[in-house]
Design brief:
68% of the residues lie in helices and 6% in strands. The protein is mainly alpha-helical. The longest helix is centred in the first third of the chain and has 98 residues.
């Protein structure tokens, strides 16, 4: 190789080196800009995210308190409605059924005391609640309980003497017009004449 060729090669290498240094400087400048940009974005973004996080925590805490208060209120409402439903369907239902089946007023409280503890509410497939005693609906249970069960003490006793009683002859002293009676009155009269 000649000196000229070597000088030409050195010049080429110098220009390639200079081009590489320029490219390296350009890349370093871009890298510094990117780092500075990232630093600025990271700090701003970080602070923004922190603020949003604190806001979300406060909102979540507030919603948590509100939901707990709502749950407690709804639980209390449900409990009071359940107690009312128990009273209406069981206590009032028992009273009505006992009176409908002829239980005398003086035996109503003892009969209620016996039956109330055995009664329970059952929700049917249609969602409606019904009072049950044992495995029978309350309205089916009461007549049987008065006739054959422990409720015999509370059932109506037909009069055996006095006005309206059949007496020894089996004939009543006065005529009764059944056309003016309700079906329940007719059933009660039929029970008395057994």
């Amino acid at each position: 190789m000649t000196i000229e060729e070597l000088q030409s090669l050195i010049e080429d290498l110098k220009s390639q080196n200079e081009a590489m240094n320029n490219k390296n400087s350009e890349l370093l400048r871009e890298l510094r800009l990117a780092k500075n940009k990232n630093k600025e974005l990271d700090i701003e973004t970080y602070n923004k995210v922190l603020d949003e996080n604190e806001t979300l925590k406060a909102t979540l805490s507030k919603l948590d308190k509100e939901s707990k208060a709502n749950i407690e209120k709804l639980s209390n409402d449900l409990s009071s409605k359940d107690k009312y439903l128990q009273k209406v369907l069981i206590e009032d239902g028992l009273t009505a059924s006992l009176l409908k089946n002829g239980t005398k007023e003086e035996f109503l409280k003892p009969a209620l005391a016996l039956l109330k503890s055995e009664a329970k509410l059952v929700q049917g497939e249609d969602g409606a609640y019904q009072a049950f005693i044992g495995d029978k609906a309350m309205n089916d249970f009461i007549p049987d309980w008065l006739e054959n069960g422990d409720g015999k003490f509370a059932r109506p006793i037909p009069p055996t003497s006095g006005g309206g009683a059949s007496g020894g002859s089996g004939v009543q002293s006065e005529q009764i017009d059944i056309s003016k009676m309700t079906p329940n009155q007719m059933m009660a009269m039929g029970r008395e004449n057994k």
